[in-house]
From TrEMBL:
Domain ScoMcrA-like SRA: 26-134
Keywords of this entry: Endonuclease, Hydrolase, Nuclease
Native species: Halorubrum kocurii JCM 14978
One Pfam family this sequence matches: SRA_ScoMcrA
Gene3D superfamilies, sorted: 1.10.30.50
Entry superkingdom: Archaea
GO molecular function ontology, one term from the record: endonuclease activity
Protein name: Restriction endonuclease-like protein
Region (Disordered): 136-159
Residues covered by the HNH nuclease domain: 191-244
Transmembrane stretches, start-end: none
InterPro entries: HNH_nuc, SRA_ScoMcrA
């Protein structure tokens, strides 16, 4: 969806944006909205208002955009933030909309590029600040060759690697490397939600060690605050789609208007899958704090 179904400068009401992009926003539009098109390709609808936490250049050139998460430290694993981080390398279209304070409609400003991201401390919490740039402000690139020629027939072969590495400084909370291995071992490298135990062709486990009470909230690196989840269910757990009862059954957020709800709803009431003979469980205090944090 690199080409938008609307034109730069168009002013659209919420219903018109939903119709143009074949999507929904529930009660209202806000912030970062990761979406997938009919071919399962990712894209983002990004919204900013005049009275939001953005700099003066938000409608032109390069600007800063604060990530999602209104309370506590923001997390790189939340759906919107993680998608924008993935968009730093390009390949994920980010469509930008802006609304002045007194306006009733959103103005489409076209595609923006995500240039970089970093953690900053603002108002006593850590937020993710994305450096973005309107595509119209990007410098014209030199053509790579005769536009009518077959690129594969070029005399000079393409480079396979860059000449030097470029590094971007990013602040992250220190994570105990032993936590990951201890949790994976405790749960036999199996997702406790779906019971899957996938591996890469060279034997590396897909399952991830997830904090029950998150690192972004200064959750501790110990096995009782950990659980193993596949990548899908790790995302669903961190995003607040699913939570666990004190009896280790799955509960699902009641949000039928959101994409993914009916997929996760099938998990409602299922018991977590623990290794046979193991007494390891997430501590009830952490499980309760996770439910509280996500409004269960």
């Amino acid at each position: 969806m690199e080409t938008a179904p609307v034109a730069v400068g168009d002013r659209l009401a919420k219903a018109e944006i939903e119709e143009a992009f074949d999507t929904g926003f529930g009660y209202q539009i806000s912030g970062i909205n990761p979406r997938r098109d009919a071919r399962d390709r990712r894209y983002v609808l990004l919204f900013a208002t005049e009275d939001g936490p953005y700099d003066d250049d938000v409608t032109r050139g390069r600007f800063e955009y604060v990530g999602e998460g209104l309370d506590g430290d923001q997390s790189e694993t939340s759906p919107g933030n993680s998608t924008l981080i993935d968009a730093v390398d390009g390949g994920i279209p980010v469509h930008f909309f802006y609304k002045p304070t007194d306006a009733k409609e959103w103005e489409y400003h076209g595609l923006v590029s995500v240039v970089d991201h970093e953690f900053e401390e603002r108002d006593g919490r850590e937020v993710i600040v994305f450096a973005m740039e309107h595509r119209s402000a990007e410098p014209d690139r030199e053509p790579s060759g005769d536009a009518g020629a077959d690129a594969n027939a070029a005399a000079d072969p393409p480079k396979l690697t860059v000449e030097e590495d470029r590094f971007v400084e990013s602040r992250r909370r220190e994570r105990d490397p032993e936590f990951v291995e201890d949790v994976r071992a405790a749960y036999d490298r199996t997702c406790v939600v779906c019971g899957r135990r996938r591996e890469t062709p060279d034997g590396r486990p897909e399952v991830e060690a997830a904090h029950v009470y998150p690192k972004a909230e200064r959750g501790v690196d110990e096995v009782r605050n950990g659980v193993t989840l596949c990548r899908l269910h790790h995302w669903a757990f961190d995003a607040g789609w699913i939570a666990f009862t004190d009896d280790y059954e799955i509960v699902v957020k009641d949000a039928p208007e959101r994409e993914g709800y009916y997929e996760f709803k099938q998990l409602e009431g299922d018991s977590l899958v623990f290794p046979e003979g193991s007494s390891i469980r997430p501590h009830p205090d952490f499980v309760a704090k996770h439910r509280e944090r996500h409004g269960f």
